[in-house]
Amino acid sequence: MARAKRHYLHGHVWHITHRCHKREFLLKFSKDRKRWLHWLYQAKKRYGLKILNYIVTSNHIHLLVAGDGNRDVIPKSMQLIASRTGQEYNQRKGRNGAFWEDRYHATAIESDEHFFRCCAYIDLNMVRAGVVSHPSQWPFCGYNEIQTPRRKNVLIDYDKFIELSGIDNYDQAKRDHQGWVEEYLGRGNDHDDKWTRSIAVGSKEFIDTVKTKLGVLAKGRDAKETGAGYQLREPVPFYLHHFGDKKDDIGVKNTHLWDINP
After folding, report:
1. Which residue of 42, 48, 162, 219 sits 20 to 30 Å from the alpha carbon of 243, by its own alpha carbon?
2. pTM for this prediction
3. Integer distance in angstroms from the first to the last C-alpha of the chain?
4. Domain 13-250 CATH assignment equals 3.30.70.1290
């Protein structure tokens, strides 16, 4: 399959998803999830990655970041995290071969309400999987760090979180974050693939702006209205149906916006 063209839109929030090779459960042990978080912290220190939320599951990760500044920050960060995590695992297990799928998927997210909706989607990943009943019970996600800010080994960029929430103080921002999580829990927490299958999610104006910035790269990509805004959608190849859309939480290869080589 042909590789997607790289493109980057400055100043947007990006929801990144990356899965283990062939959907294997290579992150099933807590030590490996902790190492992924360790290298996430190192990416923040080395490159200034602005982290807004995250979760590490048994076979994939979700990461919400702000794309400010140097366009290389996000791909360099993902390369560092993926390569070091995979190398350490293979060395410990005496294993050869790929640890990750060769690319990650990135979706541009509008701030304010859509930002909170995406945060809640990430937080509730292991609830959807039936592993826990509330995101506070899963230690490898950003929910607890957002609700109870750390003083050491801080991953979340709290100042950026406030800015993107559209609220002028952190106490209110974290209450709103908690409120969105509880609302999703209260209505059954159905899976919504727009966060992992789209190029962009937000208002009609936001989608039109993204399409304009992409120019010819947006050709053949359709804007689709959803119950809470719009999404710029990538056509889904027929073969994806063999994997079962309901359980598939990661976008397909040719929708990925940046390449990496773990």
Report:
1. 219
2. 0.85
3. 19
4. yes
For 15-31, how does the pLDDT look when each residue is reduced to its tens digit (9 = 90+)? 999 999 999 999 999 99
Q: Count of CB atoms within 10 A of residue 150's CB? A: 11
CB 156 within 8 A of CB 145: yes
- Enter the DSSP assignment of 237: P
Is residue 52 within 8 A of residue 45, CB to CB? The reply is no
Q: What is the residue extent of each domain of the chain? A: 13-250
Quickly state the pLDDT bin for 92 (edges 50, 70, 90).
Answer: very high
Distance between CA atoms of residues 257 and 14, nearest Å: 10
**Helical H segments across the chain, by residue range:** 30-47, 73-93, 113-123, 125-128, 143-147, 158-165, 170-186, 194-197, 204-214
Of 36-40, 143-147, 242-246, where does mean pLDDT reach its minimum?
A: 242-246
Q: How many residues does the chain have?
A: 262
